[in-house]
Amino acid sequence: MVGFANCGRCAYVDKEDKSTNYTTEPVLTPGTPSVLQIIAGEYPYYGNAPADMLPYRNIEPYYRYWLERLPFRGPGRDYPDPTNLTSLKVGLLSPPPYGPEAKRGEMSRKGVMLAFDEVNAARPPGKLPFELIEKADSPQWGSAANIAVEFSDKDVLGFIGTIDGDATHVALRVSLKIETFMVNCSDPDPTLTETQIPWLLRIFPDNRQQGYRLASLIVKERGLKRIVVLRTNNRPGRVGARPFVDAVRRLGSPILQEINFKEGERSFDTQVAVIKQAEPQAVLFWGNPAETGSAAARLRSAGVNAAFFGFDRLVDPQFAQFAGPAAEGATATFFFDPEKKDSAWTGFRQRFQKRYGIQPDIYAGYGYDGAQLLLDAINKAGPNRYRVHDQLTSLDEYRGVTGYMRFDGRWDNIAPVVTAHCKQGRWEFDPVASRQARLSNP
């Protein structure tokens, strides 16, 4: 049998890889300078990666992607405005009302609806009102594509959505065909904007920004070298943790293990045994808060004394609830301090509280900002999808209720993220990291 040893207990024998059409990225000595330089006038390279975390930083590339914004050269800008409109329609693609993203999706929806209400209330007499066309995704593969087509059939001028990376990817590909702009305010998938589709702007800082910050914090600031990643076994876990895994390798401290768990898991017996044997100095959690909180508790009870780190989903009451005392001292990245006192955010919190009777979270804030961006573009461009595209793709900077945004060559928000520390069940936030010196001063 080809590929197997000829023995009683057949074992698979790896075949020789004769393909030479790839280059293995070397693990460089920490401090190796980068030959890649930011060229004046270009957008920050590859999502504003720090120089010592650039891929293949010791090699001058043949071509650099994502530095120049891909233009749309099709027709449409001179199409006459429709004459039979009774409203200006905008779509909202939300995650399913059940499942792991339901709560975050509902908060995002509330932020979007508040923006629509405020903009419509301020419309001068005689101006067409904005109308929100809402659709909820389903777990069925391709559902988001069908919804995007429905938006097109209803003549929306743009749409907002969604949180789930798979659904967003699918909807984005349809947006290219229907030539309708998509504003994303809640999907952190780093690969989303690498599709070279110029019909998307994302205001939600993606997992690259969090991965770079965590890598710098763990390796450079804390000096921790023995690192284990414990992540959920799905696409958000795989692509979400990847920037961190790559970054610490480029800093000279490749991870010891990348261990998976299933959504909904609570026991973690196998994972805890393997991690304990590795004797890590740092454990990075990447998953929803109930699972990662349970894992943190199990690790501490097993005698693992490593420092705990994670991304924004740790900054959730469920993490501390399930982790118990193990949450103490955990460090996570987050988008901004939700207790900040600037007038834009505090004013939004007051209006949101008055409307819904609850305090907004980051998803509500980014939903509000995403809707405001899209509605303002439509207001300036008129009822023409192509001119709406031009308004949104010309943005370099924006300041919303969530804070300062800076958009790179792929229309990703690369503004700095903050770090938070869990102390006695509450999260305390540090100022914005100074590593983002290449960003213009907001």
- How many distinct folded domains? 2
Provide the helix percentage: 25-40%
Number of helices: 11
Which CATH-level-2 architecture of the largest domain?
3-Layer(aba) Sandwich
Could you give the order of the helices and strands? EHEHEHEEHEHEHEHEHEHHHEEEE
The biggest beta sheet is recorded as: 7 strands, mixed
What is the highest CATH level, the class of the largest domain?
Answer: Alpha Beta
CATH fold description of the largest domain: Rossmann fold
Outline:
This protein has eleven helices and 14 strands. With 442 residues, the chain is of the alpha/beta class.
Molecular structure report:
The protein is of the alpha/beta class and 442 residues long. It has two domains: 88-205 and 341-411, 3-Layer(aba) Sandwich (Rossmann fold); 208-334 and 419-429, Rossmann fold, CATH 3.40.50. It contains eleven helices and 14 strands. It has helices at residues 102-121, 143-153, 165-178, 207-221, 235-250, 269-278, 289-301, 317-323, 343-356, 362-381, 385-393, and strands at 88-94, 130-136, 159-161, 182-184, 200-202, 227-232, 257-261, 282-286, 307-310, 331-334, 397-400, 403-406, 418-423, 426-429. α1 crosses α10 (362-381) and α4 (207-221) runs parallel beside α5 (235-250). The longest helix is centred in the N-terminal third of the chain and has 20 residues, at 102-121. It starts with 87 loop residues before the first strand and ends in a 13-residue tail after the last strand.
Task: Based on the model shown, name its key terms.
alpha/beta, Rossmann fold, 2 domains, 7-stranded mixed β-sheet, 5-stranded parallel β-sheet, 14 strands, about 15% strand
